[in-house]
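thought: fold this chain, then report.
action: predict
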Amino acid sequence: MTAPARVLLALVLAVAPAVAARAAEPEGGVKVTRTIAYAKVGDEKLYLDIAVPPGDGPFPCLVMIHGGAWQGGSRGEFSVGRERDGKKTPSWIEQAAEKGYVAAAISYRLAPKTKFPGMIEDSRSAVRFLRAHAKDYKIDPEKFGAVGFSAGGHLSLLCGMCDKSVGFDVGDNLDQSGQVQCVVDFFGPTDLSLYANSPGVVDGYLAPVFGNEVKTDEAVYKKASPLTYVTKNAPPTLIFHGTIDLIVPIKHSEALLKALTDAGVPVEMHTVQFGGHGNWSDREYAKAAAASFKFLDTHLKGKK
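observation:
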């Protein structure tokens, strides 16, 4: 469930530590501001990096959520560019801003120090913060999407599927919604009960996140599974999955596809033949990039 080494537009991105808050103006007029504190939980501050397009807006907002089995990873996967063939590549948030989206890469508390639902509480807190500061960042508060890989895909789905009644909204800005209107999910777990008969996975991946209760209480799986919350009101969802993913088997996405289809929700699923858990070719990531922005443009910008 770690984040892939290569992400959209076939660029190599890597985890990077947070840097001091600053703003930059790359070519094209995109403004990038890093290390914005969006919440404080106990003694821990939570940060996001944001890229804002040039122009007056308001623009749709994409919240980008990193993977790492809920235990690792960094928002830098989406917000820090890397050298490629001697040239610095723009980060994902910069690319998205160049396409007319405000894009925010967020941090969230990690296991085992923090147990679920801390991760989704933080993710939704970031959405609420951005809505509360929509004017500051030229955001259209009615048009939010979430994009995530693996564990980040799982959290993105929960940002889309769950309303306030589920109880994942805690903290500040509770007058704002933590729900998004569109989701792009790269091989995120959708039904955690599918791991129940895999002791190695439960001990190594799930118990540190969801507690030892996950071994005996099926309700823990149900509460944490996006599949639980599928209704006719679920947001349009785009799914990507490799056919031989051994960490998050493709049946997770197949089950979500069926549930959303049965509920009448707009949904697309793209498979990568013989693709594993994100270790896809640059060509496959480039195809995923094109499909992602086409989907997002349709559902957040109203483009045909």
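thought: worth noting. Residues 6-190+225-300 form a domain with the Rossmann fold fold (CATH 3.40.50.1820).
final: tokens above.
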